[in-house]
Design goal:
Strand content: 5-15%
Main location: membrane
Subcellular location: Cell outer membrane
Structural class: alpha+beta
Distance between the termini: 41 Å
Largest sheet: 4 strands, antiparallel
Pfam family, one: SusD_RagB
Oligomer: single chain
Organism: Flavobacterium potami
Keywords: Cell outer membrane, Membrane, Signal
Radius of gyration: 23 Å
C-alpha cells in the first residue's frame, strides 16, 4: 500500500518528503520517491513521518514574488502595524497593504496549501503510527501521535482564524478513491476538533521536548488557551493559561534577549520555528519550490546595508510611524522593536549607532547613505533609491541580525534567527485579558499583566498602563508587534478592526474583511455549490 497525502490542495496527491537530522535541523528536507508502508521499518522511519508534518511551519516563499506566506503579512501588515515600502516592487506586500484581498491572491492560496499540507501529513502520521505493529515501545508511539495531533490542531487553528469554517479532514487517506470534495465545517465544528487534538496532545507530550523545536505540553496548553480566547470562553482560557504557568516558563529579564542568536529556545519561548544558516536548495521567486535551512524573513523585513555587507535584506516593509509613536519613550520595548537613527544596544553584543543625515522631522531619505558602528567594526547602511515620498524612521529589530553574521550567510534568504510562534508573555497577557472578561482561576490576572509591563517600563514607572481591557489590548500590540501571529485577528475578535484600520487610512468592510477569501482555485476544484465562498467575496 502506498501512503499518499495532500499538498497544495485538498484534492492533490504528491510524494512524501522524508526528513532527517536532530536538534533544530530536524526539518532538513530530503525529497524521495513515494513511500510505501512496507518501507517504514524503524523507529527513525516513523519519527520521520512526524517530522514531515513539522516542515510546512518553515514555508515562507513558494516560487514567485506574489506567493509569500510570512505571518507578518497576514497579521501586522494587513492590520495597522507594518506597511510595504515598495508597493510596485513587492507584489505580495502591496496586496496586504489594503483590502479587499482578492480571491485569486497567490499568498492566500499558498497559506491554504501550507496548512492543509501540514494537516494531511499529520493525518498520515497518526494513521500509520496507530496501525503499525512495528513499534514496540508504546510510550514512543504515543509521543509521536501526540506531536502529530498538536500540529494538526495548530494548523486548523491558523485556518479558522483567517478563513472561519473550512473543510474538516482528519482521516488517514489510503487511496485515491477518497472523496475530497468536502463542504466547509462550521467554525464551531473546527474549534471542537482543534480543542480535541490539542487536549489529547497536552495529556501526552512532555513538559520539555527531547529535541529542540518539538511540540511540548506547554505549547499544547498555550494554544488551547488561545483557541478558547478566540471563542470568548474565558474560564477555559484562564484554566489553560494557568496550566502553562505551572510548567516553569518565565520572562527573559531583558525583552531583547528573545531575539538574541545566543539565546534561542530560551526560558520565555513556548514554541518556535528553528532555523540554521545553510541552503539545501534555493530558487527564490523563480517558479520552483523554495527551501533553506535558514529563514528568509530577514530578507523581506530586515535592515539594509550596502554592498560592503553581503546578503543584504530587501527592506521591503517597515513599521508604521503610528506604531512607533504608540510606545512611550520609557518603554524598553521601543528600542528593541525598531532600529532607528538613535543608538541601539543589541542584547549585550555591542552598541550600534547610526551616524546619518536626517530630515528635519527625523526621517531618513531613501537615498541617504551612512554608517553603522558595531563594536569596533563599521558598516555602511543603505536606504535604496526609490520613490522619494517613501521615508522611514525605523526598520524591524526582531528580524535584524548582526552585519558580521549577515555577511557570512550563503544567501540573503538564509538567516539563522529562529521565529517565535508563542512566548510566555503572550500567555500572561491572555491570562490578564480573560480574567478581566470574567474568567476565573487561581492566579491573579493583574499580576500577569504586571509581569509584562514591569519588564517593559520598569517597576514603579508612572507610565505603566492601567490594568483594564484597553490597557491589555494596548500591551498586546506593543509586546507582540511585528511577530506576525495575532494583530489582525486580535482586532477582529475585539471588534476593533474597522476603527483601527480606518485610523491608518485603510478600508475595513464589516461582514467581509473579518475573514480571508477561500482561494478561487480551491473552489473551482471542489465546486462552488459544495465549497461556499466567504461573505463579500
Amino acid at each position: 500500500m502506498k501512503i499518499k497525502y495532500i499538498k497544495g490542495s485538498i484534492l492533490a496527491f504528491t510524494m512524501l518528503w522524508m526528513l532527517n537530522g536532530c536538534s533544530e535541523d530536524f526539518l532538513t528536507i530530503e525529497p524521495t520517491t513515494q513511500l510505501t508502508a512496507d518501507a517504514i521499518q524503524t523507529d527513525s522511519d516513523f519519527e520521520a513521518l512526524v517530522n514531515a508534518a513539522y516542515d510546512p511551519l518553515r514555508w515562507q516563499v513558494d516560487g514567485a514574488a506574489t506567493r509569500h506566506m510570512y505571518p507578518v503579512m497576514f497579521q501586522d501588515m494587513r492590520a495597522d502595524n507594518v506597511v510595504s515600502q515598495w508597493a510596485t516592487f513587492w507584489v505580495a506586500g502591496q496586496a496586504f497593504d489594503k483590502n479587499p484581498i482578492q480571491t485569486n491572491n497567490p499568498s492566500v492560496e499558498g497559506m491554504w496549501k501550507k496548512w492543509y499540507t501540514m494537516i494531511s501529513r499529520a493525518n498520515t502520521a497518526i494513521g500509520v503510527i496507530t496501525e503499525t505493529q512495528k513499534i514496540k515501545d508504546e510510550a514512543f508511539r504515543n509521543q509521536l501521535i501526540a506531536q502529530a495531533k498538536f500540529l494538526r490542531g495548530f494548523a486548523y487553528f491558523e485556518l479558522v482564524k483567517h478563513f472561519g469554517g473550512v473543510p474538516l479532514i482528519t482521516e488517514y487517506i489510503k487511496d485515491a478513491s477518497y472523496n475530497f470534495k468536502k463542504p466547509k465545517a462550521t467554525a464551531a465544528e473546527v474549534y471542537v476538533q482543534i480543542e480535541k487534538d490539542l487536549l489529547e496532545a497536552a495529556q501526552t507530550l512532555p513538559a520539555i521536548a527531547a529535541k529542540k523545536g518539538r511540540a511540548t505540553k506547554g505549547a499544547a496548553y498555550a494554544f488551547l488557551a488561545k483557541a478558547n480566547l478566540y471563542q470568548k470562553d474565558y474560564n477555559e482560557t484562564v484554566k489553560y493559561c494557568e496550566e502553562v504557568m505551572k510548567l516553569g516558563y518565565s520572562l527573559e529579564e531583558k525583552f531583547e534577549d528573545n531575539w538574541d542568536l545566543n539565546n534561542e529556545y530560551g526560558k520565555e519561548s513556548i514554541f518556535e520555528i528553528g532555523y540554521i544558516s545553510g541552503s539545501l536548495y534555493n530558487n527564490f521567486e523563480g517558479g520552483q519550490s523554495y527551501s533553506n535551512q535558514g529563514s528568509s524573513t530577514h530578507q523581506m523585513f530586515g535592515f539594509l546595508f550596502n554592498s560592503s555587507v553581503g546578503n543584504s535584506a530587501f527592506g521591503n516593509s517597515v513599521p508604521r510611524q503610528e506604531l512607533i509613536d504608540f510606545y512611550d519613550n520609557s518603554d524598553r520595548r521601543k528600542e528593541y522593536t525598531f532600529i532607528t537613527p538613535q543608538t541601539i544596544v543589541r542584547g549585550g553584543r555591542g552598541a550600534i549607532s547610526c551616524n546619518c543625515s536626517t530630515n528635519p522631522d527625523g526621517s531618513i531619505n531613501f537615498a541617504t547613505e551612512g554608517q553603522w558602528v558595531f563594536g569596533t567594526d563599521t558598516y555602511n547602511y543603505f536606504w535604496p533609491t526609490g520613490t522619494p515620498a517613501f521615508k522611514s524612521k525605523a526598520s524591524m529589530y526582531k528580524y535584524w541580525i548582526p552585519p558580521a553574521v549577515q555577511d557570512g550567510l550563503q544567501n540573503y534568504a538564509d538567516s539563522p534567527l529562529n521565529e517565535k510562534i508563542i512566548r510566555y508573555a503572550d500567555v500572561l497577557l491572555m491570562h490578564a485579558e480573560a480574567t478581566l472578561m470574567g474568567g476565573t482561576g487561581v492566579l491573579s490576572g493583574a499580576s500577569s499583566f504586571q509581569l509584562v509591563t514591569e519588564r517593559a517600563y520598569g517597576a514603579g514607572n508612572q507610565k505603566i498602563p492601567a490594568y483594564n481591557l484597553q490597557g491589555v489590548k494596548d500591551e498586546r500590540r506593543r509586546e507582540l508587534a511585528t511577530e506576525g501571529w495575532d494583530r489582525y485577528t486580535d482586532l477582529v475578535r475585539w471588534g476593533d478592526a474597522k476603527t483601527a484600520l480606518e485610523a491608518v487610512g485603510k478600508v475595513f468592510v464589516v461582514g467581509r474583511d473579518e475573514l480571508l477569501p477561500i482561494p478561487a482555485s480551491e473552489i473551482q476544484q471542489v465546486g462552488p455549490t459544495i465549497l461556499i465562498q466567504n461573505p463579500g467575496y
